[in-house]
Design brief:
Structural class: mainly alpha
Helix content: over 70%
Largest sheet: 2 strands, antiparallel
Shape: globular
Distance between the termini: 34 Å
Number of helices: 11
Oligomer: single chain
Mean pLDDT: 75
Radius of gyration: 19 Å
Number of strands: 2
Strand order of the largest sheet: 1-2
Length: 334
């Protein structure tokens, strides 16, 4: 997240794969009001933007992995957060006055969740391949969706996801570093917290102001850790340039693309597209890091993607029924 994720690899401030469709994240996105004009062909543009954003996030994560020997996992997170915070603060120029103590408390917790999500995820990809790391991380938002909906059908999606995890771990995580797997699962938990506080921040701050401020909080929190681990390596020109590339690919560019896409794309469609991130991560790991997956691991990733998509569709259907008003004068029933 990502990302905010965001992900993390997946740490983009996108609505996570299983976020409720009516939730407005802190990137200033309002819930989409229907699809793009022009029918199927008109929707190809925003869909392309979402997929480009996903590619940017995961290839940025792959670049981060290649940078870790130079700056360490904590150093890479620090560079990503600091550069992204500077860019977002300059672009958004958030207003600092006029916010309540509760507003600031929300944005601080959002920043902590963002920093934790990124830090834990980068610790994971320092130990296990990118595809499995993102697959384990996405279990956090998936669990959030299952618990939030409280529908029996979601037990099916949970069982499907657990089957994928079992396959991914080779029946006992013998094929994956257990510490790396634990970091990825913890990053998923932070991603779930990120979703909750992203929505709360979005309701309290206009546009992307809350996101910019939360990114600054995360950067300040991580700066001492990055300095402690990497020291003067953080100011090496090559390391700085690569770190800026990670920040742009993993944060700034995908945030912008997803913001543009959600102006024309329904949020449920966006959420389903985001469910493809484990597959994109696996492709990025293979193309950039030469991290080939076995047939079993590929099947495991496919199971988790299917579970995530199923949970999104269940949540969307439930939300549509819950929000349907009684017919009345001038009401079309939608």
């Amino acid at each position: 997240m990502s990302t905010p994720s965001a992900t993390p690899g997946t740490s983009s401030p996108a609505a996570a794969p299983v976020a409720a469709p009516e939730t407005a994240p802190a990137s200033g996105r309002a819930p989409a009001q229907g699809g793009a004009p022009g029918g199927r062909w008109g929707a190809l543009g925003p869909v392309g933007l979402v997929l480009a954003g996903g590619l940017s996030v995961q290839f940025g994560a792959a670049l981060a992995v290649s940078l870790m020997p130079r700056a360490g996992a904590l150093g890479v997170v620090t560079l990503r957060l600091v550069v992204a915070a500077v860019v977002l603060l300059l672009v958004c120029r958030p207003r600092l006055r006029g916010h309540s103590r509760a507003d600031w408390g929300t944005v601080v917790v959002f920043g902590i969740a963002m920093a934790g999500m990124n830090g834990l995820f980068y610790q994971a990809v320092d130990r296990i391949p990118l595809g499995p790391a993102v697959t384990l991380e996405v279990l956090g938002p998936l669990a959030l969706s299952v618990f939030a909906s409280r529908r029996a059908v979601n037990l099916v999606w949970a069982a499907l996801a657990l089957a994928g995890v079992f396959l991914l771990g080779g029946g006992g995580f013998d094929s994956l570093d257990p510490v790396g797997a634990a970091f990825a699962l913890a990053a998923g938990g932070m991603w779930a917290a990120y979703i909750v506080f992203s929505a709360r921040t979005g309701r309290r701050f206009p546009q992307a102001d809350g996101l910019a401020l939360a990114m600054a909080v995360g950067a300040v929190l991580f700066l001492p850790l990055g300095i402690a681990e990497s020291g003067t390596a953080l100011i090496d020109p090559v390391t700085l340039a690569l770190g800026a590339g990670v920040a742009l690919l993993s944060s700034v560019l995908p945030y912008t693309l997803e913001l543009l896409a959600l102006r024309r794309l329904p949020a449920p469609t966006f959420a389903i597209l985001m469910s493809l991130e484990p597959a994109i991560a696996a492709a990025a790991g293979f193309l950039i890091l030469d991290q080939a997956l076995s047939a079993t691991q590929s099947a495991a990733i496919a199971l988790v993607i299917a579970a995530s998509m199923g949970a999104v569709r269940t949540q969307v259907g439930r939300g549509s029924r819950a929000k349907r008003p009684l017919p009345g004068p001038g009401d079309d029933g939608h």
